[in-house]
Amino acid sequence: MGENAESLSLADRLAKHIRELLISGELSPGQHLSETAFSERFEVSRNSLRETFRLLTKDGLLKHETNRGVTVAVPTIASIIDIYRVRRLVECGALRQAWHQHQSIKKMREAVEIAQAHRADEDWLKVGSANMQFHSAVVDLADSRRVSEFYERVSAELRLGFGLLENRAQLHAPFVDMNYSILLLSEGGKAKEAADEMDHYLNLSERTVLKALERVTD
Asked: Does pTM surpass 0.85?
């Protein structure tokens, strides 16, 4: 009984590490995941890794195919639309009820400043990672561990959608300044205005991603 609990705990921890690789952009849509390479990387048995792959497949982040093994999932247009539906509910809701001195607002500022620095260097992969950190901090304003953990899975799937797009500058550059605007409104205690700006942000972001995905999948 204790061994099974320990095994599940290890699988959950491994799943979190792999989701972090997805969110950072280190793993790409369609990429094959080698059991040997990953078991050596994380210093775990193949059985533990298989359990982790099963959990992530259930979350829709990985895909298992006979004779091909495990690959990183490729998001569909329908899944992207659903992700943005979730983001509006969670992120706008978190901002609408946020306290202007919440510690997560400091994390939002840190993420914006990191994104601005990487934008100046035109390092769009790192700009994208800073953007994900910003939105995770927004979700943390809700003070709900369950919501934050749920959003982590959503973030990983969203980053896979970003990974399909060729023009990373077009995807990320305009939204750094919009994140900054949301930050200033939140710092100023203008919670409703911050939520409204996030709603505008997400509508524009969704259109940008869907338009780019249509070109990729045509």
From this structure: no
32-33 vs 69-72, strand pairing mode: antiparallel
> For residue 65, what are its two tokens?
């195919």
Phi, psi of 65 (to 5 degrees): -125, 135
Among 175, 212, 211, smallest CA distance to 91 is for 175
DSSP SS3 for 191: helix
The angle subtended at Cα 173 by Cα 170 and Cα 178, nearest 5°, is 125
> Can you state the percent helix, strand and coil of the chain, rounding each to 5?
75, 5, 20
What integer pLDDT is reported at residue 138 of this predicted model?
98
What lies within 8 Å, CB to CB, of 209 at 6+ separation is 80, 161, 162, 165, 171
State the Cα–Cα distance between residues 164 and 172, nearest whole angstrom.
Answer: 14
CA-to-CA separations, 109 to 87, 126, 138, in angstroms, rounded: 20, 16, 11
Q: Are 216 and 80 in contact (CB under 8 A)?
A: no
Structural contact between residues 194 and 98, judged by C-beta atoms closer than 8 angstroms:
yes
- Of all residues in the chain, the percent with pLDDT exceeding 70 is 95
List pLDDT tens digits, range 154-195.
888 888 888 777 777 877 888 999 999 999 999 999 999 999
